[in-house]
Each structure stands twice: as structure tokens, then as C-alpha cells.
Amino acid sequence: MHVGPSVAHEGGCFFISTAPEFDTRPGRVRDALASARRDWHTLYTTIVTEAQQLGEIRPEIDPADLSFELDALARIAAEDAALLDDNPRYDRARRIIANRLHQVATDTTTLDHNPH
Fold this sequence. Notes:
The chain is an all-alpha fold and 116 residues long. 64% of the residues lie in helices and 0% in strands.
């Protein structure tokens, strides 16, 4: 999971930047943004579910909840980094995400121990 700035995305993530402007404005742009968000949530949940099926994530973990947590952390890091010009927010998000994955993993030795 990549959490951090990208040269290809100077100025921040397009979706994070435009969603607040269009989230209450009906139309094609809002519909496209909403569809992309739903697809993103589905991808996160699918990945967590597959990891559970492979025995990599504890079975009692709710895939939708974990997906929501990981997505929320990544999004707030991107929002704050762009708005506050504070790239260390990405480091904080990576650290928190790594800690959360250690909590839910069945075998922490398979995780990347350097979340940068």
C-alpha cells in the first residue's frame, strides 16, 4: 500500500482535491467521483478479504471495517499534506497503518518492517 507524495501527482490527489467541491453538486462529475470512490472501497475490501482467505489476516476482522480504517488514514494524510504542506503526515500514516496491519496479521514476519 503506497501512502505518500508522488511526482506524478503534484498538487495532491485529483480525487481528494475535487471531491469536496462536487460532493453536494449533482451531475456527471459527482457521479464519476462517487463511482471511483465506490470502486476504491471495493478494491480495499476485496484485498482484505483475499488476505483473510489466504490466512494472512485474522478471521474475526471485518474486511469492510479494516478497509475503511486504511482508506481513512491514507486520505487524511493526503489531505493534510496538501493543505498544510506537511509531507511528514505521510510518515505518520504509514506508521499507523503498519501498526494496524501488525495487529490484524496472523504472521507479522511477512509484513514489511520498514513502512517508508
